[in-house]
Amino acid sequence: MLSKYHWWRDAVIYQVYVRSFLDSTGDGVGDLAGVRAGLPYLRKLGVDGIWLSPFYPSPQHDHGYDVADYCDVDPLFGDLAEFDLLVAAARRLGIRVLLDIVPNHCSSEHRWFQRALAAGPGSTARARFHFADGRGPDGAAPPNNWHAMFGGPAWSRVTEADGRPGQWYLHMFTPEQPDWNWRDPDVGAEFDRVLRFWLDRGVDGFRIDVAAGLYKHPELPDSRDPEADARTRDSVNPLAWNQPEVHTVWRGWRSVCEEYTARDGRERLLVGEVSVPTAREHALYVRSDELHQAFFFDLLSAPWEADAFRKVVSEAMQDIAGTGSTVTWVLNNHDQVRTVTRYGEPATEGSGLGAARARAAALLMLALPGAAYIYQGEELGLPEVVDLPDDVLTDPIFHRTGSRARVRDGCRVPLPWSGQASPFGFTSGVESAKPWLPQPDYFAEYATDRALADTRSFWHLYRDGLQLRSALPQLGEGALRWLDSPPGVLAFVRGDGLVCAVNFGTAPAPAPVPGSPLLSSGPCPAGELPGSTAAWWMSDGTAPDTH
Ligand code: NOJ
User: Strand ranges (DSSP E) for 17-104?
Assistant: First the structure.
């Protein structure tokens, strides 16, 4: 019932990583005009909205997650006029537009940070960031022992106006990304202005970067286990993340959204990137007066095992959906190894296994109650590009740690659209630069023109799944009931009779419903659910009218 009135509760949003989507100028970097050109493709796919990765003026140390000006467009991606055209075109096609907002940190080139550097210790300009004196007799040791998420200490020392080494400032990611001090009222007021700037330009909401961040422990004490804090990209340092005060910010932002809805009836959406240890803590971020959605990453990090998936889904249904909010499912994004590759390990188990599992996982995700996010290229079944040479890697994680272990370039390689050779239709326009990351030759097999022409492609699976999702009242928002199933198989019912089953094993299992499925991730004879396959059936054997 609720879903009929709140579009976002079961929306499917497509993440556009702008620099890798479509390049309209030929400079090798995707741009906003490219996104606009790609809208009909996304409409055909059937998504409800898009989330645009940051396109603001930025020195691009972390591909735009280092924002120098929150209210403009970097010339690399276009300008505000092009942005307005994109929003208008999306509106005409019924595609909602979410921006990526980065409130935990900015760029060291942001005018407020530059002002803070110039203003010196004790100034109001420095109070907007976390500046502190170092420890030790000459202040040469950082103020505490925190690690940055991308390697190295979380503090850098500045040179003061007199040329001497001075205070330190906090940056939980790279030194080029100083953390804002949300205890300073100027910061909240500035973000209120930023939200309104973009809402006035017609956006439908925001994806919020590091939404469990913002506030740090007021005393910035030493961490008891700094090595553990540094082991994961997720926000685990309990002194730096998930402080209770952050919830006040989300209440404030929610009320700004409600204010706009009251004016024009269009519901805006706030979706947070919330990395917290448990589903229960996660649920606090999606209370009815806070964020509408928060990405639930446990599905993404679960190994390909029936028990692991069942545990993650059950916990989310109980601890998040159980509180009346909606679960927001994700299998891929611009920070993670793509599913086709992730599920393909160990590679010795047979080629095509990763792709089969990724297809099955997609049908599972689209059958779960709640909202879902698709990362560009996921609908093409793109694998991770695992053999990019070191000298093309741009991820600050690689440059700061010297290790390829968590490097994110491999899922950010520009999309293939057509043709047999790079740039595969990714770039057009007056210049003819190479794509900013090299595309492997095998991308030809995944190009959108081939995917659209082949009804067995990933693209058709996603499109058919999305079509059924909008046609069938059983899917989207609502409850889920597990069915008994053999070991290695998960089966559940949605509404009054849509059954979804996934076989995580490699040997066939009996199907939970006789007859042919409505949709399956691979060949699926009546009565059987082959290994590494998911399928949807109506339990009464009917086929819905999707036209
Ligand atoms: C999370 C974003 O998804 C990631 O790409 C970025 O590097 C960090 N936040 C820091 O902004």
Answer: 49-52, 96-101
The predicted model scores a pTM of 0.96
Do residues 451 and 418 touch, judged by C-beta distance below 8 A?
A: no
Ligand 1 centre from 158 Cα, in Å? Answer: 24
Looking at 436-542, list the stretches that DSSP marks H as alpha helix, in order from N- to C-terminal side.
448-453, 458-471
Query: Which residues make up the CATH 2.60.40.1180 domain(s) of the chain?
Result: 476-538
Closest C-alpha among 57, 16, 12, 48 to residue 33: 16
Task: Quick: pLDDT tens for 175-201.
Answer: 999 999 999 999 999 999 999 999 999
Q: Which one, of 435, 436, 437, lies nearest residue 410 by Cα?
A: 437
For the annotated catalytic residues, the residue numbers are: 209, 259
Quick: pLDDT tens for 245-293: 999 999 999 999 999 999 999 999 999 999 998 999 999 999 999 999 9
For tokens 């976002």, name the residue: 8
User: Whose alpha carbon is nearest atom 6 of ligand 1?
Assistant: 65
Q: Tell me which residues have their CB closer than 6 angstroms to ligand 1.
A: 62, 65, 102, 173, 209-210, 273, 334-335
For the segment(s) 111-170, the CATH number from 3.40.50.300, 3.90.400.10, 3.10.180.10, 3.40.190.10 is 3.90.400.10
Topology annotation, domain 476-538:
Immunoglobulin-like (2.60.40)
Q: Classify 51 in phi/psi space as left (phi over 0), alpha (psi -120 to 50) or beta.
A: beta
